Amino acid sequence: MINKLSFVSDYMEGAHPQILKRLTETNMVKSSGYGLDEYSESAKEKIRNACSVPEADIFFLAGGTQANAVMIDALLRPYQGVISARTGHINVHEAGAIEAGGHKVLALPHQDGKITADSIQSCIDDYWRDDNHEHMVMPGMVYISHPTEYGSLYSLDELSRISRTCRKNNIPLYLDGARLAYALACPENDVSLPDIGRLCDAFYIGGTKCGALFGEAVVIPRHDYIPHLFTIIKQHGALLAKGRIAAIQFDTLFTDNLYTEIGKNAIETAGRIRAALTDRGYKLTLQSPTNQIFITFKKEVAESLSEKIEMGFIENIDSDHTVMRIATSWATQKEDVDALINIL
Amino acid sequence: MINKLSFVSDYMEGAHPQILKRLTETNMVKSSGYGLDEYSESAKEKIRNACSVPEADIFFLAGGTQANAVMIDALLRPYQGVISARTGHINVHEAGAIEAGGHKVLALPHQDGKITADSIQSCIDDYWRDDNHEHMVMPGMVYISHPTEYGSLYSLDELSRISRTCRKNNIPLYLDGARLAYALACPENDVSLPDIGRLCDAFYIGGTKCGALFGEAVVIPRHDYIPHLFTIIKQHGALLAKGRIAAIQFDTLFTDNLYTEIGKNAIETAGRIRAALTDRGYKLTLQSPTNQIFITFKKEVAESLSEKIEMGFIENIDSDHTVMRIATSWATQKEDVDALINIL
Amino acid sequence: MINKLSFVSDYMEGAHPQILKRLTETNMVKSSGYGLDEYSESAKEKIRNACSVPEADIFFLAGGTQANAVMIDALLRPYQGVISARTGHINVHEAGAIEAGGHKVLALPHQDGKITADSIQSCIDDYWRDDNHEHMVMPGMVYISHPTEYGSLYSLDELSRISRTCRKNNIPLYLDGARLAYALACPENDVSLPDIGRLCDAFYIGGTKCGALFGEAVVIPRHDYIPHLFTIIKQHGALLAKGRIAAIQFDTLFTDNLYTEIGKNAIETAGRIRAALTDRGYKLTLQSPTNQIFITFKKEVAESLSEKIEMGFIENIDSDHTVMRIATSWATQKEDVDALINIL
Amino acid sequence: MINKLSFVSDYMEGAHPQILKRLTETNMVKSSGYGLDEYSESAKEKIRNACSVPEADIFFLAGGTQANAVMIDALLRPYQGVISARTGHINVHEAGAIEAGGHKVLALPHQDGKITADSIQSCIDDYWRDDNHEHMVMPGMVYISHPTEYGSLYSLDELSRISRTCRKNNIPLYLDGARLAYALACPENDVSLPDIGRLCDAFYIGGTKCGALFGEAVVIPRHDYIPHLFTIIKQHGALLAKGRIAAIQFDTLFTDNLYTEIGKNAIETAGRIRAALTDRGYKLTLQSPTNQIFITFKKEVAESLSEKIEMGFIENIDSDHTVMRIATSWATQKEDVDALINIL
């Protein structure tokens, strides 16, 4: 329906064709509701294997803000807050969903969207050392995303140090994997699904932006780490009646390594675009290796390009310069990339 | 995956085949996210026409508890509660989602799942007449469902009187249409979509139980009656990134009257089962004309039947008797009904 | 400021004179804020002794609704509700404070304001036996008051059975003692402070209605049973900066048995009024032995009496009859009782 | 009870003696509960006169965090947040009370604890200009305190500009006056009570830190600007049963200009201490003219002084330096100041 070249986001198409095929094949089979069906069991088992978390509790939710709000509510006690990068999705783009659940986001400075083990430890130390800390919000968990909002990646070393810091301080580490497939497909990435399963206390594997019609798989490696999570999900209005619809999608994504393959097209096309931008002298706002490219344009250049190319608007940094985002995805077409590069 | 005859619920299959066909056909078309796409516009326009609400604001959400929680939060002020039948879904089977949003459910006695204009007026009068009403929860809206939890139907006269009562008292009327297609397909029903559009201040048209993979269409007849509802939805984690996926389903359901046709199979098969039960001397718990049949069994009969037929368990009414539910749907097969009747 | 005889409530005067004396004597002594002062320590120690709860955590809050809301929030997990009599203060007269904290009140039928161990057990059993209980609100604690809203008293046997039921089911028992002094002063009462300390998991000793300017003493017999309760209190806006002001009042009330003495005047004067009412053929709505008398009047009688006596309005039971409440207190004057009886 | 010289806070004593005298004189007079008494009417009328807000709604609450939480909940819609200095009490020292009410604190950079009309306008502009603002928290009101957390004062010009900015953007301005008496007593202050009444949409006049046993007077200049605020207060557990106890205190504070006089001793003694500190070469952390003095000490100096003087700990700014606070109050004794200066 969109006529211009569009690189606005990574959720502009439907689903990987294999997913629609499976949905169609299984359509008239009867199954139980609320995730108590065999498709859900199968998908969970495949995810447990892929992440090396044989005991994990797994739930399929509809979207990322929902997954974050449910899990943060489930992991925190009412007097606790969640540590996040100031740029974290939960701090900026979830319309206050975390606060609506009663929790403060304890926002830390970031580097390219990332926070560090040291800054987390400082935040915790500052709290406990303060004479008045009982009048303050206790840091109760850590939220990170991989890739981050800015498309950057945690190294395995960075993630390991954050995990150690969390465990030393006895607070859970939660990872938002809305675009996890694009991290996994990235040559620069050295964090595997089993690493995440080992280092995090909860995380979600993104479907919506990674080839599904919708859906995120929430994984809690330790069984019953969060008692009554089923009811917590229901209370948040997040329980899918036909759980199988999400499950069949994840079952497909975790068959024949589709989830680790599906991001490759996005990374390759983003690489070509990045190279073309650099060649032509455009200024990348920051170095990020995944499927999002942030470019600082002169305003008139941004306006001129916008007539032919739909990009995402990020911010005006001054009266002359604008940051825009180009996003590729599993569905990005070679011809569109050629056309884009041509226009640039 | 289920081998026994199964009449447990009306959401055991995928979607009407036409829906999967449309999802497949449109799969690789690019569109904007968050409901700002042409499929959403088309579906909304068809619903506006079907309900004769040309100015209506419409949003597509994922499920019924979510729709109820979002809309009740959006319609009430913090010091207000929602009037509902004691048996209402929001009062019993939403895990406290309404209270989690800060609101009390003001539960009224019911008849076959229905409440009356008079009982609503009494509840409101009791509040305002009480010297201490400022210490109490103010009735702020009315929640009903059509069909009700017990499969019963409001007559147009009953609904009109409830609507008049709400408007006289200046509180909104909200209708939960999780199974609305089964009401519309029912010969006993005299409430049309335009009636609902005219008499209610907000309602949702159920998709999940009426032939969609998932999804409910929230309709607010008066434009901008609820300011910033988009953000309220986002804050509840209820905004679908690929809004089109739900929209395409509703666009299909509202093409060629599919939504008003889709329930007929359920009503016809339920009618056959009801007749067979009555013939064979089984006791219907209550008279309901839609796709849910409630039967009071002797316990040993219920147990014996359960070996061959999956039914829904409702409650033990004493040590000898059990209430069970048989649900039909758009997808119920003639052969399964034959087999069921045979077993009975 | 009120010229008519007034028996509207038991909080119409200031404080027991001994309390004002202590506040005046200690006024210019410096002390730490937030309950970390020696007056607070002294008052807590006296309450621990009076209740035989040597390890108890104790906090002084400003009012009853606040104490209930804070403690129910502190004792429940988000997916749990609180069992209460339908007539319980939390269910009727707290403006939805419990729901505002996210919790459903699971209202049980009552007898003269009381619930029973059996009805509590049934409520819990109904939940766990329901196939769909994960879609419902889990009973997470029990709320009772002593005396109840209707002035009735739990016997030690009744309270013991409720306590056993709670412990068997592993859910806490919380007792609202807004008018506890009037129970303790009542000859019919066989529940002592140490009984309450032994049988309840949390309770509050009422000050506001029992001789203090304001204040309720929340007692949690087991130390650290509720971690970080200080912060939970602060988060609810319930932490008194000058904690000593409440503490000095409780220190006075628990010196020389003042708290167990202070209610006697109320019980004696209520007894005289009750006898006079019965003598003159008035109909007591229910038999309650404490400081609240509920009378069912013919409407014209109620209106005629209201010209000379201020009573509390409870409800119209039909077009001819009205229930009114006469409340006595520690401060009720003999002459006012004489005058009241005279008018009757 | 404290033997060292103590300058820890401005709420270490009871109340101005005149307040205790009035409480004692009126103790046995009967009055209605919940603020519906003549003392409350009298106090409100005096405050209306002092602030030139003849139509104002006024409520007496118990404490500052409570007042802030109630008013911010009452003024915001669920999807809105409150703009505040990053150092604002609501952002740092209220244990997440605002977030517990569902609202994000939109924290702005500060200068000596103050924010500016320009920074407020930028925050609002940033929101509305952002393409994705419907996914973000809408700025819904402005919170300031006078004096600020750092003891600094808004000039009338600054306050006027902030007020104009709020009105231009149609969002309310709320002022936290926990220490307002100390501003009013300060020669540098040019903001009067009528200025505040004219420029703010809601504010509270602090009692707890300004000579009362407890209590804050919430003032809303426009009548019925916040419908059903009584019930909102009750729902927050913030309604005082014996409203007169707070009212009598404010009635006393607003008789014979006591409230504008009561802070003078604090300002004078703070001035003497500030001069002595400067004389002896101590480093004031920032210039603030009210009753709080922030001093940057070498750590060993802070430790040595702490043996003789109790001060408030603010923060360690590096391994060698510590910021401490000295607070004076209406009750500070000349001899204690002499002794303090002597030790310095």
What does this structure look like?
The structure is a homotetramer of 344-residue chains. Chain A has 344 residues and is α/β, with parallel strands linked by helices. Chain A has two domains: 90 residues, Aspartate Aminotransferase, domain 1 (Alpha-Beta Complex); 245 residues, Type I PLP-dependent aspartate aminotransferase-like (Major domain) (Aspartate Aminotransferase, domain 2, 3-Layer(aba) Sandwich), CATH 3.40.640.10. Chain A is 40% helix and 18% strand. The first copy, chain A, is built from 15 helices and 13 strands. In chain A, helix 1 crosses helix 11 and helix 6 runs parallel beside helix 7. At the B-D interface, helix 10 of B face helix 10 of D.
What is the end-to-end distance of chain A? 23 Å
What's the number of domains of chain A? 2
CATH homology superfamily of the largest domain in chain A: Type I PLP-dependent aspartate aminotransferase-like (Major domain)
Task: Specify the number of helices of chain A.
Answer: 15
CATH topology of the largest domain in chain A: Aspartate Aminotransferase, domain 2
Please state the structural category of chain A. alpha/beta
The SSE string of chain A, one letter per element, is EHHEHEHHEHEHEHHEEHHHHEEHEEEH
Poorly predicted regions of chain A are none
How many strands appear in the DSSP assignment of chain A? Answer: 13
CA gyration radius of chain A, whole angstroms:
20 Å
As a percent range, the share of helical residues of chain A equals 40-55%
Sketch the major β-sheet of chain A.
Answer: 7 strands, mixed
CATH architecture tag of the largest domain in chain A: 3-Layer(aba) Sandwich
Instruction: Using the coordinates above, name the CATH class of the largest domain in chain A.
Output: Alpha Beta
Shape of chain A: globular
Q: Largest inter-chain interface?
A: A-B, 56 and 56 residues
Q: Which assembly state applies to the chains in this document? A: homotetramer
What strand line-up does the widest sheet of chain A have?
2-8-7-6-5-3-4
Percent strand of chain A? 15-25%
Mean pLDDT of chain A: 96
